[in-house]
């Protein structure tokens, strides 16, 4: 039996490319297969901003009130005699000096009254002289026993009556001369005169009312009510004679500040029980006449001792529904600081709470700023300090 031999197929040589692929698989292995890495997020760009440090410096404490200007002297000019108004010697609204003539009333009737009174006085003086002579004669006759006591007493009584008539006549003459003087009405004070209510040709009398109003102009008073608690806070609930009280600054309705400072010179002695306020008065120079009697003004009362306060520029202040805040730079990032702000001080605002001073406050570049944003801070010069 023949043995059958199986045919062994011949081996085929390895392709070069296959060898290279196999070598790569052997070297790297399945666990070292290259994987696609996720893209890294882009870092946010730092926002350029300008900063200035929050300043801490002493400022004056102030409290604001509403007051009214009042003239120191205020006079209603009135007629003191009855007569026809001959002349008005001023223009409405002009300044007048003390003693300046303002009105002139017809003089002729009053001059006649003076002459009549003078004549009555001369007659009374003649009667008195005769009575004196008769009394002396009666006394002489009584000393020589040629006259009686009764006659002498009668002559003494007649002399006394004549003396009384002469005194009355002298008083009537003086009254007539005073009334003649009242025909020229002069200004009792220096100040500014208002519009006259009567013109030439009208009959004026003491019952005619005020002919014009004169108010003094320099200085002026400003009166304002203050709660007792607020005024005690400033350490002045009274001002004694000869002493000076706190300073005050006035602001007009348009927001402008009056250039002259005043001084509190009077605190009323009684509190108004209906409002729980006390009336306070300050005296303010008015050399240019800017303050007008009766004007409403804002009154800022300054405390005597300044206190240390933190100030930030008003340009750095931002407000939203929660209140005011600023951005400060901490560790290269923008951080929000909520503030409780007080009064303005020029280009600054007083910070009562929220900052301690020295923080780098952002004043420029606020438009795109968000809490936590990286910033590139550049210091800038602070704005000029305003008057507190």
UniProtKB/TrEMBL annotation:
InterPro entries assigned to the protein according to its UniProt record, in alphabetical order: MdtA-like_b-barrel (IPR058626), MdtA-like_BSH (IPR058625), MdtA-like_HH (IPR058624), RND_pump_MFP (IPR006143), YknX-like_C (IPR058637)
Keyword flag Manganese: no
Keyword entries, A-Z: Coiled coil
Pfam families membership: Beta-barrel_RND (PF25944), BSH_RND (PF25917), HH_MFP_RND (PF25876), YknX_C (PF25989)
YknX-like C-terminal permuted SH3-like domain ranges (all copies): 312-375
Domain of life: Bacteria
Domain Multidrug resistance protein MdtA-like beta-barrel: 219-303
SUPFAM superfamilies hit by this protein: HlyD-like secretion proteins
Classification via Gene3D superfamilies: 2.40.30.170, 2.40.420.20, 2.40.50.100, Helix hairpin bin
Region (Disordered): 36-55
Record domain Multidrug resistance protein MdtA-like alpha-helical hairpin: where: 115-183
Occurrences of domain Multidrug resistance protein MdtA-like barrel-sandwich hybrid (ranges): 73-208
Recorded coiled-coil stretches: 114-141
Homology family: Belongs to the membrane fusion protein (MFP) (TC 8.A.1) family.
Protein name, UniProt field: Efflux RND transporter periplasmic adaptor subunit
């Amino acid at each position: 039996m023949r043995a059958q031999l199986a045919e062994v197929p011949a081996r085929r040589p390895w392709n070069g490319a296959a060898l290279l692929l196999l070598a790569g698989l052997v070297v790297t292995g399945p666990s070292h297969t290259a994987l696609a890495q996720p893209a890294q997020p882009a870092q946010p760009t730092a926002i350029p901003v300008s900063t200035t440090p929050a300043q801490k410096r002493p400022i004056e404490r102030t409290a604001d009130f509403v007051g009214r200007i009042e003239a120191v002297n205020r006079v209603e000019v009135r007629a003191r005699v009855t007569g026809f108004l001959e002349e008005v010697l001023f223009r409405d609204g002009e300044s007048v000096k003390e003693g300046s003539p303002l009105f002139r009333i017809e003089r002729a009737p009053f001059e006649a009254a003076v002459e009549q009174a003078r004549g009555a006085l001369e007659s009374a003086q003649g009667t008195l002289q005769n009575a004196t002579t008769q009394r002396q004669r009666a006394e002489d006759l009584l000393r020589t026993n040629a006259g009686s006591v009764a006659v002498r007493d009668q002559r003494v009584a007649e002399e006394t009556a004549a003396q009384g008539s002469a005194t009355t006549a002298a008083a009537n003459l003086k009254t007539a001369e005073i009334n003649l003087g009242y025909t020229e009405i002069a200004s009792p004070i220096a100040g500014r005169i208002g519009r006259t209510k009567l013109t030439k040709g009208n009959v004026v009398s003491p019952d005619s009312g005020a002919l014009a109003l004169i108010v003094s102009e320099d200085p002026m008073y400003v009166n304002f009510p203050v709660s007792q608690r607020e005024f005690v806070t400033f350490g002045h609930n009274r001002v004694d004679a000869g002493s000076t009280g706190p300073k005050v600054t006035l602001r007009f309705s348009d927001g402008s500040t009056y250039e002259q400072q005043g001084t509190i010179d009077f605190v009323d002695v009684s509190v108004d029980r209906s409002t729980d306020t006390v009336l306070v008065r300050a005296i303010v120079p008015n050399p240019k006449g800017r303050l007008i009697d009766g004007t409403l003004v804002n009154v800022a009362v300054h405390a005597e001792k300044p206190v240390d306060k933190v100030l930030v520029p008003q340009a750095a202040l931002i407000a939203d529904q929660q209140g005011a805040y600023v951005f400060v730079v901490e560790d290269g990032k923008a951080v929000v600081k909520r503030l409780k702000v007080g009064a303005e001080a020029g280009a600054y605002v007083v910070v009562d709470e929220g900052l301690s001073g020295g923080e780098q406050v952002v004043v420029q570049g606020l438009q795109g700023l968000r809490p936590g944003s990286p910033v590139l801070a550049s210091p800038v010069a602070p704005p000029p300090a305003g008057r507190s």
